[in-house]
Amino acid sequence: MEIVQVKDLTKKYPAFELSDISFSLNSGRITGFVGRNGAGKTTTIKSMLNMVHPDRGEISFFGKPVTGNEQEIKKRIGYSTGTVSWYPRKKILVIVDTVKRFYDTWDDETCRKYFSLFGIDDRKTPLELSEGMKVKLNLALALSHRAEVLILDEPTSGLDPFSRNELLDVFSLLKQEGTAVFFSTHIVSDLEKCADDIIYISKGKIFASLPKEEFLRRYSGDGESLEDTILRLEGGAFHA
């Protein structure tokens, strides 16, 4: 079921333009949003969350436009960037107690589950965490209010290979629960492991938005991996 729609999203900057971005997200699907750094992934995500105001386009969640319904929608979605920006010297348990007040769907048991899974000690402060553990903290907080859509900007950035695999396994569990997982990345191997759908963006334009298998059938050469294909397309062989 489609629960997120992005249609004709456009945002112009002096040196960059996000142009006519359109795609949809479905419940129970993992969608990888792939492109090189500077392709427009973060601008798209921030526009979806009304953190950047596009020049044109329509964005809706659960059949409702973001404009006029932002507070209601944001209670039903989770968002995480690759790093955490909480008060660095506050105990994590204090941060959790503050964040949970914004969500009437907050689930303490779910929070404890992900803290245990990720090995997070809530007696520490963010300042005491490694970059990888900061990513895990941010994600755990995003997951703890039963989000129906999880939007993640480079969530595996800074994680070691073991932790990345652990995180991708969490995505698969969320998928089974019906959550729509949308994550941007430039690490194509992550998509090969877990993505159902691929949205490929280059130079501010969507060049493909397809199920992963269809993407591979349409664009991959003999013996090419998904990573090989993306690298070749990004190198200029794709002129769709």
What pattern of helices and strands is seen along the backbone?
EEEHEEHEHHHEHEHEEHH
Whole-number mean pLDDT: 90
Computed structural class? alpha/beta
- General shape: globular
Percentage beta strand: 25-35%
**What is the gyration radius calculated from CA atoms?**
18 Å
| Poorly predicted tracts of residues | none
Total strand count, please?
Answer: 10
For the biggest sheet, the summary is: 6 strands, mixed
Alpha plus pi helix count: 9
Order of strands in the sheet with the most strands?
Answer: 6-7-8-3-9-10
The percent range for helix content is: 25-40%
- For the termini, the CA-CA separation is 28 Å
Outline of the structure:
By secondary structure, the chain is α/β, with parallel strands linked by helices. It is built from nine helices and ten strands.
Offer a few descriptive terms.
single chain, 4-stranded antiparallel beta sheet, 37% helix
Descriptive report:
By secondary structure, the chain is of the alpha/beta class. 37% of the residues lie in helices and 27% in strands. The protein is built from 9 helices and 10 strands. It has helices at residues 41-48, 70-74, 92-99, 108-118, 131-143, 161-176, 188-194, 212-219, 226-237; strands at 2-13, 16-26, 30-34, 56-61, 64-65, 77-81, 149-153, 180-185, 197-202, 205-211. The strands form 2 sheets. It has a 6-stranded mixed beta sheet with strand order 6-7-8-3-9-10, sandwiched between helices. Helix 4 (108-118) packs antiparallel against helix 5 (131-143). The radius of gyration is 18 Å and the shape is globular. The mean pLDDT is 90.
